[in-house]
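Appendix B. Extra example for self-study. Work through it before the problem class; the solution is given directly after the inputs so you can check yourself.
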Amino acid sequence: MSRTRSRVPVLIGALAALGLLLFLLPLAGLIVRAPWNQTLAELTDPTTTTALGLSIFCSLTATAIALVLGVPLAMILARTHGTLRNILRALTTLPMVLPPVVGGVALLLAFGRRGLVGSLLYQWFGIQIPFTTAAAVMAETFVAMPFLVIAVEAGLRSLDHRYEEAARSLGAGYWRVLTRVTLPLLRPAIFSGAVLCWARALGEFGATITFAGNFPGRTQTVPIAVYLALETKPEAAITLSLILLVVSVAILVGLRDRWLGV
Amino acid sequence: MRKWLVALTALPVLASCMGTSGVCAVQMSCGVGPSRTMLTVFAAASLQPAFDKIGARLLTTSNIASTFSYAGTQTLTTQITQGAPADVFASADTAHMATVAGLLEEPSAIFAHNRLEIAVAKGNPKGIHSLADLSRSGLVIVLADPSVPAGKYAQQALAKANVTVHPASLEQQVTGVLSKVALGEADAGIVYVSDIITSGKVDGVAIPDGQNVIADYPIGILKSAQNAAGAKAFVALVLSADGQAILKTAGFEGV
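Solution. Structure tokens for the complete assembly:
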């Protein structure tokens, strides 16, 4: 490490500083303009508490569903190769790059009252998904599950399969190996994937408002409440934004070892 | 320290490069006659069908190219208060226009009126004939949020009719209500007459005068307008016989 590193040109440094400012200044704006003396009042405002409660419920439910469906999906993904793998991978990661509003429109066209599946649900069982809390949970799951799948798949691929082989050679069946060896070994990957999935679900806006609409206590999650409050009660919008900021920072700090790869 | 200065002086150069290329693009699009100018119009979502036509007219007559930002009036009001670069603002109510009154070149003028109507699916399969029908159980009703002019008007109309509805969703602009009914996700919603006339995808159920609310649409030019002459021409066209005819075709009531 004695070799001196080449000096970074000034232009690179300046552009990097500008880039950093782009991240820093909005945060500073939020913190500086926050109505600190009103924060407590805003925090106990029914609109705020209702939105917070709903957001926590929806995001945790979405994460639970993502765990139940996403871990098996990651297991299948980790076992496939070639074209099949590429297709499955593209399908599962599409929601990560798709604009969330497009996701919302797609969900509406699939699960809406006149949608592909939704029309059958409505005709046969009288079930209508849009405008319900279930719709908000579905939208969040749709957008957030890929984060869990990707994390768990990466964990599976880097797993030392000799442990599983050893367990199998000692007579353990498939389920015993899975629950006693594979899943415990995957715990860090599942944990960091679930936390990222939860964070993404908590921040979901576009797909939710498109597919689930906006109604306090039913589908009005914190990001939607922030968006609406900015037009009527900016102080409430800033307070809610601060809460999401604190949660995001807490997640980054909590996951720094697991996710940021340092 | 010197390095930082070099970098900082490089920035204006970059910026000016981008600036010149922007000018070139505008110049290239210039034809014969008055040179084309750009105009930014912030307009309530319900005005889209009429204003798109008025914008097209202004382009052919005066070579003024209008760019429209259509959204809920409350959204546009917030954006303008935060310094969004609008030349003209057309609101769906006088209350929001009043909050930006200090930013206007001169007092705003009412240029159109609108009424409320109940939007239902084509053929009215649910048999909705009055505001009172909206309180029936088993119907999915969507309204605009009370912070949106259309939502506020709907609340007033429902209060006049003494009807309580339980909406499934509160949309951020009246066009959101319209699209939810047009998509078949909602059974009914309260929108403007003009929305139903221009949509073509829903049927309208009239609300009697005694329960209806008349929406006033004011228009104003902002002090910060980049294109003050263009803004004046746009407002003049909206208030002219031509503009009023376009608005009437789109279902508005003239002034």
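Self-check: The interface with chain A takes residues 3-4, 6-8, 10-11, 72, 74-75, 77-78, 140, 142, 145, 147, 167-172, 180, 183-186 of chain B (CB under 8 Å). If your reasoning did not lead you there, revisit section 3.
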